[in-house]
Design brief:
With 815 residues, the protein is mainly beta. It contains 2 helices and 50 strands. The longest helix is centred in the middle third of the chain and has 5 residues.
Length: 815
């Protein structure tokens, strides 16, 4: 039977064709024609796909449609195209034939096929088999979900898993500009034949020509890369070339070996012209409830860098020194989070040479992967367990630290040990923490109308070598020589209870009364001989009661603009602080006095130091909001106490007989805290904070501004300063830095990128990079010059050429 229907209007005829197990229904949705159906008993709900059609159903929109047996044909008039939807796919063409029995579709003229995974195929003629794959295509073009395109004169499906394309072109870059006009892709691979192997999940090329901006630059008789739809596949990643005075020319060639969807290896040898190669390895494995990542490297070589070989004070540069030996590093971490409240993890970080990362330019060796983390140039190995519920938390950990820092006494000099090395920080002075326990718990409901929180902590610290200030209090530090004195071991147990209740008055004043009690117990071994037997037990307690008051006010100051003023104050009364000089200061050596810490009951971050007596803290925050997201905020605050606290003073590093106040809390008036942020548009934002003493001098400050203009131009500027130490000297910890990074496009996709850190205290640029870049959102190439002159770099200044390359689909030089 054959039926022809044509609509008398330009709306066209819409047909819905349903193919079942033994019957086919044809329904027209246009004009006055109506489909007739016979009631059928429904025993189960009909399952429909994402397109709303049942399995085996076909939806057609066409100017003309006909059926001959199981073959349905549809045709569009003029420039119109037939629309067919079936099996979550969409097909548009000037003419379409579909065999219901075989599931085979044929389309001609301006064919566009959208597969269920979102990929798109274009052709002048297309044949689709029952698996909805292109059997034969003429003038073939395909666009993948990630934006990559594959084009060919002809495409043939050779087998179930192999597609062959002749005279093909592949590009990961856009082939049209913003207005939809054709443009030359930045990077493309042209080949005589391309085979897409779905089992290998790879695209194979014969006689491949690489083009940059349409210009042929490289030829390979054979080339392959993963299918763009593949998330991970074995193969070479983009190589990373560089130049360094110590290593000479370097080329790192990473190869990724995918073992399974949850495991892979990265083998990345670094080949150098002036020194032996370094082999880098990385293993990653994802388990049902966790992940393990292990990195390592190995070489067999002598040291190289700056050495005074003849002892005349002149350091020869980039010479090999000493005997050849094995040199290596290992950086591993794991984290497991099974069902339930428990989770655990570890980090293992160790290197055989304190300068290995610098000499071989190891990428990102200092990472935060565990419960605790070291800072720059310190590696941490730890094991930890956590338990967390809605109302409780417990962690138990142990860790040790390997330091790669220079000794502060010689960081600013060229002093070397007898082997020619700069002097490094003594690791025997760093503590081993085992165990370190922290816990907190809250009851399920209010207690006396407020919130009760219980906390507890315990730690055992041990050292091999003696450390003076700021760990030891001034009265404990021996007046004479400290050579041969053992390191101080300490153990602490702390319990704390805090109760707080929030009340809001009818006029909007917020009242928060609170009570905080704490008890500490210390056991300290190996104190200096002046303290008597050297083994002491110290117990102390502290109780605090107080009231927080705030009164937020808001006022409309213009169309779409609000001004919020929030004055706030805290009154607190504590027992006098027990700052026993026998207690070492391990966890309270640094204090960042800012808006978040100014109103805390314990403003010191750890447990070793605490405040007492009567305190009054006041501050105010003003916030202006306008134009849906734009804002500016400023906070100013200060704290007053009934008396000074000399226990917060510590010896000056360069004059131990003199004391100074690094915290800003030793006086009866604290430093002023000034803090603000602003974002006048979605392209500019900034923030800053400062601690200012009573004389108006800035003790500490940090400011940062981010800016973005045009589409890709951006810059970040930050400034940080610390002037808390009043005496200059080799151990002075004061610093002042300016950091800048940014990129500016000058012509089209060409631009410049710069970054640098300037040490204003020493009047030197410690790190700098300047490079030329090309970036068109699919291909970024950067080449430039860099210099590293940081005082912590033990091998002296380093300079050389760097190359960074990132390709869409193919990856980049990082891993």
């Amino acid at each position: 039977m054959q039926r022809d229907r044509r609509a008398p209007t330009t709306a066209g005829l819409r047909l819905r064709l349903l193919a079942g197990a033994g019957a086919v229904a044809l329904a027209s949705l246009a004009g006055t024609a109506q489909a007739q159906s016979t009631p059928v008993a429904v025993t189960a709900p009909i399952q429909t796909g994402a397109d709303g059609l049942t399995p085996g159903a076909v939806y057609l929109e066409a100017d003309a449609a006909a059926r001959d047996g199981d073959v349905i044909s549809a045709e569009a008039a003029g420039a119109d195209r037939v629309l067919a939807r079936f099996r979550d796919s969409t097909l548009r063409a000037g003419a379409v034939r579909y065999d219901l029995g075989l599931g085979v579709a044929t389309a001609d003229r301006q064919v566009e096929f959208v597969a269920p995974d979102g990929s798109v195929v274009y052709a002048s003629r297309l044949e689709l088999d029952s698996d909805l794959k292109a059997g034969v295509a003429v003038d073939f073009a395909s666009r993948f979900r990630n934006g990559a395109s594959l084009m060919a004169a002809t495409a043939v499906r050779r087998s179930e898993h192999v597609n062959e394309l002749n005279y093909a072109l592949f590009t990961p870059c856009p082939i049209c500009d913003a207005e939809g006009n054709p443009k030359e892709p930045s990077i493309a691979i042209q080949a005589e034949k391309v085979v897409q192997d779905e089992e290998l999940r790879a695209i194979l090329y014969r006689n491949a020509v690489f083009r940059v901006g349409g210009v042929p630059v490289f030829y390979l008789p054979f080339f392959a890369h993963p299918d763009p739809t593949v998330e991970r596949a074995s193969g070479f990643l983009a190589p990373s070339p560089s130049y360094d005075e110590g290593r000479g020319l370097s080329l790192e060639i990473p190869y990724l070996r995918v073992i399974s969807p949850s495991e892979d290896w990265l083998i990345s040898p670094q080949v150098n012209t002036d020194v032996a190669p370094l082999l880098n390895l990385q293993w990653r494995r994802r388990f049902t409830d966790g992940t393990i990542v292990a990195r390592g490297g190995y070489t067999y070589e002598r040291n190289f860098g700056d050495f005074d070989l003849d002892g005349d004070g002149d350091f020869e540069t980039n010479v090999k020194f000493g005997d050849r030996t094995s040199r290596s590093y290992f950086l591993g971490h794991g984290r497991f989070d099974p069902d339930g409240p428990w989770r655990w993890g570890f980090t293992v970080e160790q290197t055989s040479d304190k300068t290995l990362f610098d000499r071989y330019d190891i990428r990102d060796p200092y990472q935060d992967n565990g419960l605790y983390y070291g800072d720059q140039r310190r590696l941490i190995s730890q094991l930890y367990v956590e338990r967390q519920t809605a109302r409780s938390y417990v962690s138990v950990a142990a860790f040790a630290i390997q330091s790669l820092r220079l000794d502060p006494a010689f960081a600013d000099t060229d002093f070397r040990d007898p082997q020619g090395f700069k002097v490094f920080e003594n690791e025997g002075r760093l503590p081993l923490a085992a165990p370190l326990i922290e816990a907190r718990w809250e009851p399920g409901g209010p207690v006396l109308g407020g919130r009760l929180r219980l906390r507890g902590s315990a730690v055992a610290l041990s050292r091999d070598d003696y450390v003076g200030g700021p760990v030891l209090r001034p009265v404990v530090i021996p007046a004479g020589s400290t050579l041969g004195l053992p390191g101080i071991d300490s153990r602490r147990v702390t319990g704390q209870a805090e109760w707080r209740r929030t009340l809001i008055s009818p006029i909007g004043v917020r009242w928060e009364p609170f009570v905080d009690v704490r008890a500490d117990h210390y056991s300290v071994d190996d104190l200096p001989p002046s303290m008597g037997p050297g083994n002491e037990t110290v117990s102390r307690g502290r109780a605090t009661a107080g009231l927080d008051i705030s009164y937020p006010l808001i006022r409309r100051v213009g169309p779409g603009a609000d001004l919020i003023l929030e004055p706030m104050a805290q009154f607190s009364m504590s027992t006098r602080p027990d700052l026993d000089p026998r207690i070492p200061i391990e966890d309270s050596q640094t204090l960042e006095l800012d808006e978040s810490s100014l109103f805390r009951v314990d403003r010191f971050p750890g447990q070793d130091l605490h405040e007492g007596g009567l305190r009054f803290t006041a501050g105010a925050r003003a916030t202006l909001r306008w134009d849906e997201g734009r804002r500016a905020s400023l906070f100013v605050g200060r704290s007053l106490r009934d008396s000074e606290e000399d226990g917060f003073l510590v010896p000056l590093p360069d004059a131990p007989a003199r004391l100074y106040d690094p915290s800003g809390l030793a006086s009866d008036t604290s430093d002023w805290v000034v803090q603000g942020d602003f974002s006048p548009s979605d392209r500019i934002r900034g923030w800053g904070h400062a601690a200012i003493d009573s004389a108006g001098e800035i003790r500490r400050a940090e400011i940062a501004i981010d800016g973005r203009w045009a589409r890709r131009n951006l810059a970040t500027v930050s400034y940080i300063v610390d002037r808390s130490n009043p005496l200059a000297g080799p151990l002075n910890r004061n610093y002042e830095f300016v950091q800048l990074s940014g990129q500016q496009f000058v012509y089209g996709n060409w631009g410049v990128a710069v970054s640098g850190i300037a040490d204003l205290e020493r009047d030197i640029v410690t790190r700098s990079e300047v490079g030329l870049l090309f970036d068109d959102d699919c291909f970024r190439f950067e080449i430039g010059y860099r210099r590293d002159n940081t005082r912590v770099r033990p091998t002296g200044p380093s300079e050389g050429v760097y190359v960074r390359l990132n390709l869409a689909t193919f990856g980049g030089t990082g891993y």
